[in-house]
Amino acid sequence: MDEAKISYCYIQPSELEDLFHSRCVFMCVIGGEVCVSGHDSGPVFEEQPSSLIYPEGLPEGKVTLNCQARASPAASYRWRVNGSEVLIGEHSHYTLVAGNLVINNPQHGRDSGSYQCLAVNRCGTIVSRAANLKFGYLRDFPLEGRSPQTAYEGTGTFLACQAPAHYPALSYRWILNEFPSFVQPDGGRWFVSQVTGNLYLANARTNDTGNYFCLTTINMDISTKSTFSKAVQLTVQPEATPRKSAPNIRVRFPSETYALAGHTTQLECFAYGNPTPKLRWRKVDGILPSKVGASADGPILTLPDLSFDDEGVYECEAYSSEGRDTHQGRVSVQGTALLKGLDAQSAALLRYKCAKVRAHLVLKGNGKWQVVYFTELVHAPDFRLNPVRKLVPAARGGQVKMECKPRAAPKPTLFWSRGTELLTNSSRVTVMPDGVLWIYNISRADEGKYTCFAENYLGKANSTGHLSVRDATKITLAPSNADINQGENVTLQCHASHDPTMDLTFTWSLNGVLLDLEEPNGHYHRIEGKENIGDLAIVNTQLSQAGIYTCSAQTVVDSAVASGRLVVRGPPGPPGGLVVKSVNETAVELRWSRGYDNHSPIGKYVIMGRSEHSHDWKKMRTDPANIEGNAESARVIDLRPWMDYEFQVIASNILGSGEPSMPSQPVRTKQAAPTVAPSGLGGGGGDRNELIITWTVSNVSL
């Protein structure tokens, strides 16, 4: 291609607003019809199409996408959807009214997509911003009932909404017992998450008992739809003295939140605790913007009209007379080139390049010209909003990650140094393409200042942080294996050493699932003591609590873990696979498979039965009379002929009797002649030619 000839055009600051709103590519055609300078003017948008959401399945509706431009001579209009020309004709469901596109009877599979308006006259063509037509829907909740929930007075709990499929996002409310009795905040005790729809309760009271319904609402551009769930029955069990508890944050906003400049973002935070915790927010690396208003003291922090000054780390603190809890997360603002944000009084003239392109690249063989206008906002690297962390703690023998995230356009070149030494990749040091520095197998010698340098063609910047190497956390007394009987108490020990300048916390998990040590009436309790002791007490231990217990000792820079196995011995589990064989008049044969012995050998089995005349289970006579623990079959004897029976098998060991097996299928014994003659024979009375005879039959029983 021949080298393009370059000339320059200038746009006055007063024209920036139009340029921003159009977000367009301008094409000026010279040749054919002549655009007369000073008389004609190319199209400029006065109204552009906007994205909208249309209710799926709405009958006989229509959508109008607006497009109007001023031009001399007047502009004509075309439309594109997903890059293809929209065909407007007599038999099309598209109609063009002035420049507006009307879509009749919109349908999801046919009409959803990205629409753009083209305004054309002899001076050029402008293309509008993209307007997305999407279809909204809200399905119904499942018809199945929901499981009831129980909470203890003074403890926190939540009810899950489990919203049905939908688009776009929902708003949530909860109903108590009947519409329109909505759940109210009640001084911060209740909270409805607008992210999950779940209903949270900081501390339960007995008068919270009731039926709760999750109400979901979807707001679209031309309609609103709501649906509500089946009832969740909440029962609050009273406590003689409701236990007080420190705040425990259970609704946590993400550790990283990304949002667009000019938009609104919300951060959610809510805590369990008794008394009800209060909430307050702060910006860790700056001043909380005044525009957050009253949300600074509530469960949802609202950041409207985001700017780059709003970037940073935000902290939610829950506090009460019993203590405090905090949670932090970073908000990153993604930029959009908002020309209207420039100061029109001080903005310099923006220079646009106007390139002459060979004819065969644009319109074949006509020798026409295409003029392309474009802008790009660029700036030198800047660390002011996101400097390297001033103090980065790390543990000896561990690894550390140091981030380098300056604002810059175009993307800068990033590199790190320690003092005057430029860092390059090695067995212990890795500099990632995105500027992240990793150091592995850390030693005291790695302590010191680390500087990230950023550079593009507009300038340079750097930011420095200090790596502080701390003592590694180590388990000094690991939990031992333990073997106990069901119902007994046990203590699992866990001691650790750590860097004295840092706080140490302990957590416990069972078979990889984190344990809740704050449940007041639970089986697990933390043993209070010295900071380096994290012993776990388990009270009234049940069979389900056997397994691998893992203690984790953690600081902000590292952690150490150790595990021990807890064996819980108890009565046997229920036998399985109970079947009835060889049925005759007075006996049946039963067969079963051994259940789990729960670490104590099965000593014997007992067979229980019931007939159609008795709903209570009774011990049956068997052959052999005493069924040993290694048996898997036995005969039940002394049954009644022609009677329906069900049977169960119960295993026992030295720790007691276990749960019975599932009942057998009902079985009927075979018929037989009576074995006992009637007794109490008598008679008399009656009318003429009639004799009444009476007798007594034996009682029918198992």
UniProtKB/TrEMBL annotation:
GO biological process, one term: cell-cell adhesion
Sequence segments annotated as region (Disordered): 658-685
Species this protein is from: Astyanax mexicanus (Blind cave fish)
Alphabetical list of Gene3D superfamilies matching this protein: Immunoglobulins
Cell compartment(s), UniProt: Cell membrane
Keywords, alphabetical: Cell membrane, Disulfide bond, Glycoprotein, Immunoglobulin domain, Membrane, Repeat, Signal
Gene Ontology CC entries for this record: plasma membrane
InterPro entries: FN3_dom, FN3_sf, Ig-like_dom, Ig-like_dom_sf, Ig-like_fold, Ig_I-set, Ig_sub, Ig_sub2
Ig-like domain location: 43-134, 142-229, 247-332, 381-468, 473-562
Full protein name: Contactin 2
Any Pfam family matching the protein: Ig_3
Domain Fibronectin type-III: 574-672
